[in-house]
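[Solved] Which block belongs to which protein?

Original post:
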Amino acid sequence: MSQNHDQLVGLIWSIANKLRGPYRPPQYRRVMLPLTVLRRMDLVLAPTKDKVLAQYTKLQAQGHSEEAIHKILGKTASSEREQPLYNVSQYDFEKLLGDPNNIARNLVAYIEGFSPKAKDIFSKFGFEQEIEKLDNANRLFMIIKEFTDPKIDVHPDRVNNLQMGYVFEELVRKFNEQANEETGDHFTPREVIRLMAHLMYTEDEDVYTPGIARTIYDPTCGTGGMLSVSEEYIREQNPQANLMLYGQEYNAESYAICCADLLIKDEPIDNIHFGDTLGDGRSSDGHTDKKFHYMLANPPFGVEWKTQQSVVQKEYDTLGFKGRFGAGTPRINDGALLFLQTILAKMRPGPELKGDGSKIAIVFNGSPLFTGDAGSGESNIRRWIIENDWLDAIVALPDQMFYNTGIFTYIWLVTNRKRPERKGKVQLIDATKHFQKMRKSLGNKRNELSDDHIDEITRLYAEFQHDNTSRVIIDGETEEKICSKIFNNRDFSYLKITVERPLKLNFQASDDRIAKLMGETAFAKLSQSKKRKDSTAILAEEEAGKRLQENITAALTNMPDTLFKNRDEFTNALNAAMKAAEIKLEAPVRKAILSALSERDETADTCTDAKGRPEADSDLRDTELVPLPKDIDLPMMNAPEAAPTDADLPELVKDHVEVYLAAEVHPHVPDAWVDHKKTKMGYEIPLNRHFYVYEPPRALAEIEADIKSIETDIMQMLKGITA
């Protein structure tokens, strides 16, 4: 970060501290962010102010309505602009200071005088309601005067839009820090966005064609950082590119900053939609039918989507793959993969459909890599993406890269126009050691990517080599480390099989086992009435139930104290005892008796069902993850119209699973079998496991020497204390 950037943030923060009293530090943002935008617009409009006022007065004199005047001014206020930005009030910051007694009223008039789109920006800030509070606290004049100081020069000629983006995000970070916010919303460091841009546009020659038109979309655009950096990256190499930026943001403050940035750059803001991208009943996806060439996003990490659940679930149930969420829905406590599905629904047709396709870069935490069991929503979403051959690469970033979280993060690169050598493949890149320590931490952000790191990670991606190495610093030493691996799509798939063990029980009508019978729900309920109103009937029913319990217990006590190792033999003895006592057992009570009077016994006979098939012991049930066979053609989720299905899976993989069972399970538990009906396919991406390098433990002698050395040091310190 430049010194000018730090100085500007420091100056604005020093002004913010003058709000202390009527505002608590976490509330400073309500004033400082809109006033920073207002001052920037004020400086931009200064050269055309007199011209606009003269034209406005002339149009009023001609009898035009206010609506008509704004339409005319929108086209003529500045011949150098395409997007309307003007102000028809007589005020600017200097003139506001000329009338201290009426500064609140005049400031409102000043904001009301802006062109419609600019005025909407300030309505999203909700700034007007703060003006009266500032005035009543005798702070308004002082704050406006501070912003008018030449040191706070935020004109685009002195602070370009990219630098201003840094300023806004640093201010927002500081405000969030004051509020101790950990909401899951993480501002993406600009060097991470630059890396995403490098990776996404690498080997993409079309975007550098002069005059080419391309669309860029961010469904969680925040203050517009990803859109701005991406645009800047392309224009540096292709100034003639026609770039159209699209986005959506649900936070009013961030939306306002993003739109202000675009408007000052004279770019359209109509393509930035305000509202919840997933849909929350009040707002919804603002770009439903649009398709984009490039898409970037940093959705919230680990944030539940309960408020969007009804909308998302309805779209999933009614539209399937014709909507956004056909592949499935993740757990309610993390909606990150819903945003990826939203982006995938906006891909342009790929080359196989004679289209130019789309490329995507999205930042996740580790959860989307592996969370979710086989057959779960997360697993099915990964399966759908990989089987469609859209997942291109995943880059593991260092920890402590984001301002308000220290966790490891991952860039997913997804596309429907892979180069021929990448088809059917996924590249994993371990960039966790590619960083440098910051001179000064920013919240949780202690690490950063240098330009050299970005270039090196981009090289690894572009070369697309298995076991490609890179020079990294580990524990202060520079060494070569494998940082790139190439996998086949199916390497991330597996079968989850259910291994059953036979149920083996012995039975005995002993006193201690009979005593357990009252703990069985079905038996205990015999003395509980189902009636609710007639007290006499309730009492009678309960008494009858107690007598039945006593009769059953007596009949069991009269049975011989024999240990049965065959359930059928014990059942015959039980039936005879109940018949002799003239007791007719209901099925739930019979089951309760068998449960109470039984114990597991490996030497007992296997319990079987009515067809003579062995019953499974649920307590001994286990699952195994089996690599998916590479030579079997399995049902794939590669048709957009098809929902995930494992209906045909068991028969296709049965022989493969039986071979695994014989080799890996039977040597330990010979009587185990697999319930093939429960076999499921799963997908996970264990990136860390693939780059794990075993480090043998230190020799015992070395550890012992260290312990003795520490003991010696402790004894020396103790001597110093007692001396």
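(Second protein starts here: sequence line, then its structure tokens.)
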Amino acid sequence: MTTSSGSGSVSIALCGSGGAGVMTAANMFVDAAAEAGFYALFGRSSGPQIRGGEAAALLRLAAKPITSVDDTFDIMLAVDWLGVQRFAAELPLSKSTLIICDPAAGEVPEVYVKTGARIVHLPMKDLAKAIPGGRPNMIALGAVAALVGFPVQPLTEVLGKSLKKKRADAYEASVAAVKKGAEFAASLGDTKKLPAPSPNPGKRLAIAGNAATGLGAIRGGVKFCAAYPITPATEVLEYLSSALPKVGGVFVQAEDELASVNMCIGGSYGGAPSITATAGPGLALMIEGLGLSVASETPVVVVDVQRVGPSTGIATKCEQSDLNIAVYGLHGDAPHLVVAPNSIGDCLFTTQWGVHLAEVLQSPCIVLSDQALGQSRAIIDAPPELNLPGGRLTATTPAEGETFKRYANTESGVSPMPIPGVEGCQYTADGLEHTETGTPSSQSSDHNMQLDKRQRKLTNYDYADHWATIEGEGDIAVITWGSCTGAAREAIDRARADGVKARLISLRLVYPTRPQHMGDALKGVKKILVVEQSHLGQFTRYLRGEYDLPVKPEQLSRPGPLPMRPGEIHARLLSMGK
């Protein structure tokens, strides 16, 4: 049987209270790993106060692409112990784990002692004091790098890029601290080492999911964003606030989520592809506006970076529990688009595709990202620039004697949409049901016609192979979505090494459904495992309600904030393969 953790990677947890600098150290490690030819995944965990308090930087490094956390951590380094025990459930340790701590920080909490991990001491504060301007987090960075066999030079190069031009003294102190930590690491014993990186790594990109989402919006042609900050989506807005002016666009910080979505609908009505970003509480406030987008057939994109709910929930943790509101939350029969990225890199493509679909189909599109994707940072192969064909179908002045029909009952369901001011193309754009010309109507014939039209344009559109990521073969199918995809992919690889073959189906197009495509993807399948991060099994219920599955699926689900890990999916697959 294969090992229970990724043998070709090293997982590290850097922990400390707010201000200890663990996030800074982890970000530098990721930048250096990119320079050295490695891949990396950097997630973070913090308390409900968002800023300040306890913090944990969760790193995984490897010589090949990685899209999931591992089952356990190989190294846990605690700069101090203030509040770190609150992360115990999120930091699975084992007897092979090395815990590194400062003896000046006090006793190791019992919850970590009970894991049986080996505990060693690194006097970070004392070593830092011996260096003018030295900081404990840089001592920690050098020690951890040396323990896993990571070269010091890329770290010092990253320090130079970030500090040398600003403060030469801070740069020199940080380099000295990194080297001192690396020297001291020799006394801490041996631990798991990184494999050699690829000699020809090619172009890499170190990017967070929320930044990738913003880049995808820009590549999709977005020119307007109105939004209200909310964790964990704020970084999307930060990216767009600086990127949009560079492409001739406009960013507006609105007073709330209701204003945000309606400003975006207005911007889109005026001809500018528009987007906003929010989390679950904000999406709930935007639902009425999305209904207006459906009825008026005005494209708009809403990115929902899901967090733990309901209500305010846990703003800094991940969960996939906004599925129901995204798919079924609009009042009335209101068909719309729902898409979901399945990796940090895929945040770029899926958002670009979502903008494209919204424009082509004149529909609202909800992009269901989540905190684990949005606020994690990864080193990935640089994605290619894609040119998705087509765009918004615009109207021109009708011929003399013809009446412009904004909502013409076309075969495709898509009708030409004018930019305001085009002669002869005036129409009423509101939330009332209407005739083909846009005149408000309460007639059943008009209502049925427009209902059919709005549904037809979504169900008949050719989404090509983008509707899902499908990999592997076997008579077991693992169906999943979002950030659970990486763990499922790794689990399938492990199971294959154990002689159990399974295929992966990760939905990117959540709505509208693709019954024929799903049927083809499930041909020959005898068992199905649905993997999701939801307490009520929302995704399983969605699949059983919307698709004619060949067998009743087994379910592997739980709520946030704990991520789904490859080992538990692997174990279930082995059980199913007996």
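Accepted answer:
You had them paired correctly. Confirming on the second one: The first strand starts at residue 9 and ends at 17.
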